[in-house]
Amino acid sequence: MRPRKKRSVTPSSASAADKFDDDDYPAYTMGRAAEMLGVTPAFLRALGEHRLITPLRSEGGHRRYSRYQLRIAGRARELVDAGTPIEAACRIIILEDQLEDAQRINEELRGQGRSEEPSA
Hints:
This protein has 120 residues and is mainly α. It contains five helices and three strands. It has a three-stranded antiparallel beta sheet with strand order 1-3-2. The chain is flat and about 60 Å long.
């Protein structure tokens, strides 16, 4: 999971067809997102307060969530349902993301090192 990174096209530059496939397109209202996850809007607000996800805002100022953000919120809900305090759940997810990034970078660097070895 990557809770803080923007990865694909922005909503204003995406064509209508691209929006269906864009995990980052803010398609869901807070109420719909909460319903889909089986949580309260307050839970989603708390994830924002703990800086796990930052929903985009509609022109009217309403929070809008992407499918990617809903997956992150779903992971947070799993941890909270297992008894983890919400602050700790958010920190765990952020640390998992940092570990994933470090492992990816490590693999990339190892691959570069192999390609630079002199041939016999």
